[in-house]
């Protein structure tokens, strides 16, 4: 296959930087006071117990403690002020909290959380989804990412889907005039590297084997999971809240004020202006696909 060349002599595929789709999303500020003092609609003990009971029934391994589950329920209620998060609000959460910017993949992550396919994410679906999204094993994250990348919800990802995903997540560089041709080159590179059974598409086994050989390929078609910094910030929020949610634990006004200040410091970092697009240098992209 011939490669189009830029003025620098590199192939056009090598001149691509990947980036999230650049959209402006609304921003929302969290305040600990409304959580700590029950303003708005606090989470009932019954609702939390229901989530904990349902989690206990699940066969898949759970990675959050009871206290952390309660913290996630509290965050959920603070975000939505009801018992469901709709698609636009969920997209805001993905963008503002986890730095996601790709519209296609934000919708696919929403779909992965919305297990009953009713167009909303319940409190239980929120907790179960975050179990994999934040703390899943490699196998769990591979399955989650594959489901997001398989735009038709099938057991394989077609050439056309790979093209669509890459086109949604690349940023055209100056001097590379034929973006579609460059993306087609990347599609061929991807299939050559990952299509283990040579059927001209990526099955779930192809994807799993490829990621286990090279974990960087978990995000080869765009950002699905939170980046390390945002994940750590969210985990710190959960950790701090979980210290307060042991039933019957009492705090002085001074202790509560100190915790409030720490929480809001963490949230301030979470609310920093997002630099749109997860970008990779040419060298990083070349290293992933070995071209």
From TrEMBL:
The lineage of its organism: Eukaryota, Metazoa, Spiralia, Gnathifera, Rotifera. PANTHER family: CALAXIN, CALCIUM BINDING PROTEINS. Residues 1-12 have a biased composition (Low complexity). This is EF-hand domain-containing protein. Residues 107-126 form the EF-hand domain. GO terms for molecular function: calcium ion binding. The keyword Calcium applies. Keywords: Calcium, Metal-binding, Repeat. InterPro entries: EF-hand-dom_pair (IPR011992), EF_Hand_1_Ca_BS (IPR018247), EF_hand_dom (IPR002048), Recoverin (IPR028846). SUPFAM superfamilies: EF-hand (SSF47473). The keyword Ribonucleoprotein does not apply. It comes from Adineta steineri. Pfam families: EF-hand_5. Gene3D superfamilies: EF-hand (1.10.238.10). It comes from the Eukaryota.
């Amino acid at each position: 296959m011939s490669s189009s060349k830029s003025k620098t002599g590199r192939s056009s595929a090598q001149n691509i930087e990947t980036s999230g789709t650049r959209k402006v999303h609304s921003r929302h500020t969290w305040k600990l006071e409304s959580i700590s003092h029950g303003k708005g609609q606090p989470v009932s003990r019954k609702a939390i117990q229901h989530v904990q009971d349902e989690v206990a029934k699940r066969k898949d391994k759970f990675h959050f403690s009871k206290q952390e589950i309660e913290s996630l329920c509290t965050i959920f209620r603070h975000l939505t002020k009801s018992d469901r998060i709709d698609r636009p609000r969920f997209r805001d959460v993905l963008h503002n909290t986890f730095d996601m910017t790709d519209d296609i993949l934000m919708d696919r992550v929403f779909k992965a959380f919305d297990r009953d396919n009713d167009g909303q994410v319940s409190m239980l679906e929120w907790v179960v989804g975050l179990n994999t999204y934040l703390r899943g094993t490699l196998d769990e994250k591979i399955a989650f990412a594959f489901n997001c990348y398989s735009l038709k919800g099938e057991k394989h990802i077609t050439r056309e889907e790979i093209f669509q995903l890459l086109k949604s997540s690349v940023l055209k560089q100056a001097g590379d005039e034929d973006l579609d041709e460059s993306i087609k080159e990347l599609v061929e590179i991807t299939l050559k590297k990952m299509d283990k059974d040579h059927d001209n598409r990526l099955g779930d086994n192809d994807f799993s084997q490829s990621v286990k050989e090279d974990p960087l390929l978990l995000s080869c078609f765009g950002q699905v999971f939170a980046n390390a910094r945002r994940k750590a910030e969210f985990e710190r929020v959960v950790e701090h809240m979980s210290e307060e949610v042991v039933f019957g634990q009492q705090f002085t006004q001074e202790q509560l004020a100190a915790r409030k200040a720490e929480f809001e410091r963490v949230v301030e970092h979470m609310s920093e202006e997002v630099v749109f697009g997860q970008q990779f240098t040419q060298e990083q992209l070349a290293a992933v696909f070995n071209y």
